[in-house]
Design a protein that fits this description.
Two copies of one chain form a homodimer. Chain A is of the alpha/beta class and 343 residues long. Chain A folds into three domains: 44 residues, lambda repressor-like DNA-binding domains (434 Repressor (Amino-terminal Domain)); 130 residues, Rossmann fold, CATH 3.40.50.2300; 129 residues, Response regulator (Rossmann fold, 3-Layer(aba) Sandwich), CATH 3.40.50.2300. Chain A has twelve helices and eleven strands. In chain A, helix 11 links the parallel strand 8 and strand 9. In chain A, helix 1 crosses helix 2, helix 1 packs across helix 3 and helix 8 packs parallel to helix 9. The radius of gyration of chain A is 26 Å and the shape is elongated. The relative contact order of chain A is 0.12. Chains A and B meet through helix 4, helix 5, strand 2, helix 6 and helix 11 of A and helix 4, helix 5, strand 2, helix 6 and helix 11 of B. Strand 2 of chain A pairs antiparallel with strand 2 of chain B, so a sheet runs across the interface. Chain B binds a DNA duplex (30 and 30 nucleotides) through helix 2 and helix 4.
Chain lengths: 343, 343
DNA sequence: TATTGACAAGTAAACGATTCCATACTAAGT
DNA sequence: ACTTAGTATGGAATCGTTTACTTGTCAATA
């Protein structure tokens, strides 16, 4: 039994003592950054195994200033897509020995701020941020200048902002959705949007307006409901928009979770899709293959977006001062059977 | 403009210099753990604001050995429920100023080991583990003795294991599912299980056996398929089990993602549920309200399970040597319309 | 043989905080 | 007025690494 491991964690000092060398030599063996003679190498390797030594990242970080930690701040984590994105990011950064720190701000800018500071205090190496939109200047001025930053589904308009952006082309996508409804003969089109404080909400709203104008249709604010991208707000919006004497013939959902909420409302109330109301969604829906109706939609492929975000943040860590990059993915319309054709 | 902040991060030394006091005093002001005279207190507070100082967690951890970091290791992150659990854990621990480190092992024990070591190296304060099942002894002997550990959906049989467990009662739940099928007149019941290396797989398999024996039915291995709890394995299992000359009348899925995979297969092939085949699922399915068929199932409420796991791990951090605790949630059968009644 | 150079291995100073211990100063008791 | 006790503050060690600098050995060359 040459099992020397106590319950106490062993340090580089213990390894050095066990191997009969200095701690500097042990460090060199571990990091393989200087030449160490083969015999000593073997001795140290054995001592490492014998003592059960695992290098301490905390102490390492003290010197190297590198935590190999990426922070991912999500504003509404209930969206399963955000977690698919988290997974994709994690998968990419893992290959470079990074770990992912995840948190959710529940759409609260104050909490977002708290997390940002906590993560900075932890000296994260990079940040992927799905912001609430409440801290644009602070992020531009204080965060992004010192911390490699990638924004998801958000654009930061401030001049000072240094960082990258991953998004789908919201204006293009919602234009396609609206146009499709119009071309199927719909005129009274209700809109379920996200709030306009964030670029995602604005862009997608813009695309809808583009299409309406192009076809000379009136943009009627009474048919608009702006929620917070959540399932609940989708449900509430659908209720509000469709309990009128003259309900719209179609609903354009600018967020996938809002579409889920709206469709749950319709199904619950026995409102048939597409016979009673047509529905289109910006963003994919979980288990779409198993749904009673196959929604016409603009899919956002979260694994692709997440992978891109991971790549960009790693790249920016390598090269913090390169120009901002915007990864905007084109959108494709997938035709399901959730839209009634009046033509 | 008394804006002294350069791009350089300021340390406790800078604050001390700015306030004209020693670093020890600054530390005392920050931590409020010793008396400091009101005047100096004010001076230091001002200096902190002036320098834009944020305490460095890394350096703190060097002394205090406390990272306020909880690790969450998931074996198959593609299951949306795992991410709902992650969210619930994060929500609980956030209130005690902990952050969550998330990773996925893709069912690879080697990767799990790598992550475990990486997290130990990061000196995480606690661990929630959804293990692949490949490292039971190591976890019992090396991990759990020094690190507050909570297992999700897994039981560690080793005597040395020190830690808590969160699970639903798998034997009970799958017994209920099997019994329900039998009571609806099904006799040829196919089984889509998870692998038996993990307790979840074994317990649920056991419950099925209990029910079959109770009703004097033959347990026919030809009707069993053991996959890895994933959607893909569910799909493959369904294909294997239902491309025979005399297919079973019912499918008992012991994992929610497997059920998803199987149902996608059935729908794709035009096999009607429940007319052609009855399906029951252990575990809930995302957006079940929108599905073409409402599966009869045992729901596992991930937010509740996650919350429990978060509470247990925090509690164990406070009190590392208390006896192991097992949080086993009872199961309820939800009757949908995915089972044909032959009686 | 003496001098130089190469290079392996050790010594010690960081990194940024916390905290034990020492010190100096105030106030009270005889 | 002198000792003593109490206490606010500073000095310095410490946590576990990395790495610049130093030391010492040995082979090669003149």
């Amino acid at each position: 039994m040459n099992n020397n491991e106590n319950t106490q964690k062993s340090t580089i000092k213990d390894v050095a003592k066990a191997a009969g060398v200095s701690i500097a030599t042990v460090s060199r063996v571990i990091n393989k950054n200087y030449y160490v003679s083969p015999e000593i190498n073997v001795k140290v390797q054995n001592a490492i195994v014998q003592t059960g030594y695992v290098p301490d990242s905390i102490a390492r970080t003290m010197k190297s200033n590198n935590t190999n930690l990426i922070g991912f701040i999500v504003s509404n984590i209930s969206n399963p897509h955000m977690m698919t994105i988290a997974r994709a990011i994690e998968k990419v950064i893992r290959e470079s020995n990074y770990n992912l720190l995840v948190c959710s701000t529940e759409n609260d800018p104050t909490l977002e701020l708290k997390y940002l500071n906590a993560f900075i205090s932890r000296r994260i190496s990079g940040l992927v941020l799905h912001s609430t939109g409440g801290n644009e200047e602070y992020i531009a001025q204080k965060i992004s200048s010192t911390l490699p930053t990638v924004l998801m589904f958000r654009h930061n308009e401030c001049k000072e902002f240094v960082g990258d952006t991953v998004d789908t082309d919201g204006r293009q996508g919602s234009y396609k959705l609206a146009k499709h409804l119009i071309e199927c003969g719909h005129r009274r089109i209700a809109l379920l949007g996200g709030h306009l404080e964030v670029s995602t909400g604005r862009d997608r709203y813009q695309g809808y307006q583009d299409a309406m104008r192009e076809f000379g249709l009136e943009i009627n604010p009474e048919l608009h409901y702006f929620g917070d991208f959540s399932e609940l707000s989708g449900l509430q919006g659908a209720r509000k928009l469709f309990t009128t004497s003259n309900p719209p013939t179609a609903l354009l959902c600018l967020a996938n979770m809002a579409a889920v909420g709206a469709m749950k409302y319709f199904r619950d109330k026995g409102i048939h899709v597409p016979d009673d109301v047509s529905v289109v969604s910006y963003g994919d829906i979980e288990n779409v293959e198993l749904m009673w109706v196959n929604p016409t939609r603009i899919p956002q492929i979260p694994s692709v977006l997440g992978q891109k975000a991971g790549e960009l943040v790693l790249d920016r860590i390598q090269n913090p001062h390169r120009p901002n990059r915007e990864a905007t993915f084109d959108t494709d319309l997938i035709i399901g059977n959730s839209v009634k054709n009046y033509i």
